[in-house]
Design goal:
single chain, 184 residues, alpha/beta, Rossmann fold, three-stranded antiparallel sheet, 3 helices, globular
Length: 184
């Protein structure tokens, strides 16, 4: 299926500003339990974004914030377990999440199924005091009752479109672009 680039919705500076704003919003909402705050990014890209938000918090508050990453592949409700090409990466949670205020981070919120899978995966590692969601982009079309607590940008899309986030950590430049499936 061919994809056509439709529009860039965020450039590097807009992403930087959005993540700084999200860090301030997280701080404002969680100032009473800042010492129990941890970040868990959904692989892949959510983990890079989680590190950036945590670095912003560390600069703002002069504190150290634990950051981990979770792979939700085997928790997805749309995975074909008989498929031989399933790619699973490592979950990296070098801290206990029990009793912590977890900020779950993903790059794009769409149907909500990835977030549901991430919450299921988190529960296998402990029982957090609370889970909040931070996303760089919310594109709508929810299939589950899931909403982001912190959003970098709302980007209305059609179901024929998708949003691709590129990050410098993957060897590129920061950008978010809408692509459209051709021929549909």
């Amino acid at each position: 299926m061919e994809m056509r680039e439709k529009a860039q919705v965020m450039n590097a500076e807009e992403i930087r500003r959005a993540l700084l704003r999200i860090a301030h919003e997280i701080l404002e909402q969680n100032h009473k339990h800042i010492e129990d705050l941890v970040f868990v990014g959904v692989k892949s890209r959510g983990d890079f974004i989680a590190h950036r938000i945590a670095e912003n918090l560390e600069r703002i508050e002069q504190i150290e914030v634990n950051v981990g990453a979770i792979d939700v592949t085997l928790y997805r409700d749309d995975i074909n377990l008989y498929e031989t090409q399933i790619q699973v990466s490592n979950t990296e949670l070098p801290f206990d999440i029990t009793g912590k205020w977890v900020i779950l981070v993903d790059e794009v919120l769409y149907t909500g199924r990835t977030v549901r899978a991430a919450m299921d995966a988190l529960m296998d590692f402990g029982r957090p005091a609370a889970i909040q969601l931070a996303t760089l982009i919310d594109r709508g079309h929810r299939e589950l009752p899931i909403a982001s607590d912190y959003v970098g940008k709302n980007v209305p899309t059609s179901r024929r479109e998708f949003v691709r986030v590129r990050l410098a950590e993957e060897g590129g430049v920061d950008s978010a672009t809408i692509y459209e499936r051709e021929g549909e």
